[in-house]
Amino acid sequence: MEIIQMDQASLSSVRAAAAAILERPSRVHLLVNNAGIMAIPDYRLTPDGHELQLATNHLSHFLFFKLLEPALLKAASPQLPSRVVTLSSSAHNIHEINDADNYNFERTDYNPMIAYAQSKTTNIYMANEIERRYAERNVHATSVHPGIVVQTALAQHMPPDAFKDVDESALYACVKSVEQGAATTVWAAVGDKWKSGGGKYLADCAVAELYVDGEDKFLTAGYAAHAYDVDEAKRLWRDSLRLVGLPEEEE
């Protein structure tokens, strides 16, 4: 299998990668949005003018889906629907999405974890909105919390004392191997349960339950109350179309 490399900060590279896929004769039944960066310590904008975490973790995935949308729809049928799986995180519990004129922290101070949390909420909203818009055409979407997987480079920008106030036993109970971290993604991608439905936030190979007050927002497998805000998901979809340079759509 050939792997198509993309520059995570450039929407032009997303367009190039999508074009390379669409040139191939094979069908597209599954899209797993797995690219991600976390807690970039300094404020950075991409060449397209977007905050780096929002651009990498959401806008690139959104554009990639929209460019592959015709192929996903063409391949989809009631017998074999197409699926979109987008990796989110428990970090979405920390923050919702910014106002439309502040996605890039134009009006508030940049905070690495708030920026990351915003991008993880966008992942849930994108999946929920795909399900709402495309389910009747046999394209289904879910969002996934893989857990804390320390054997990757995702947390390379986290400060050494990032978890100094976290109970060690609770932290270690949440740590997963790469294989364990991938399990929920694989379940969402091929499990029979998601053959004809979606729009759910998944964790530990199950549909996540509502976050319980008092739990650590980063260690919990639960979802925030804002995760299923339909109006905010619609708003993000509209704004994302604008931010990646695509025309408006009917809701």
Automatic annotation (TrEMBL):
Transmembrane segments: none
Keyword NADP part of the UniProt annotation: yes
Alphabetized Gene3D superfamilies for the sequence: NAD(P)-binding Rossmann-like Domain (3.40.50.720)
Keywords on record: NADP, Oxidoreductase
Keyword Oxidoreductase in annotation: yes
Record InterPro entries: NAD(P)-bd_dom_sf, SDR_fam
Family: Belongs to the short-chain dehydrogenases/reductases (SDR) family.
Family annotation (PANTHER family): NAD(P)-BINDING ROSSMANN-FOLD SUPERFAMILY PROTEIN, RETINOL DEHYDROGENASE
Protein name: Short-chain dehydrogenase
Species assigned in the record: Aspergillus keveii
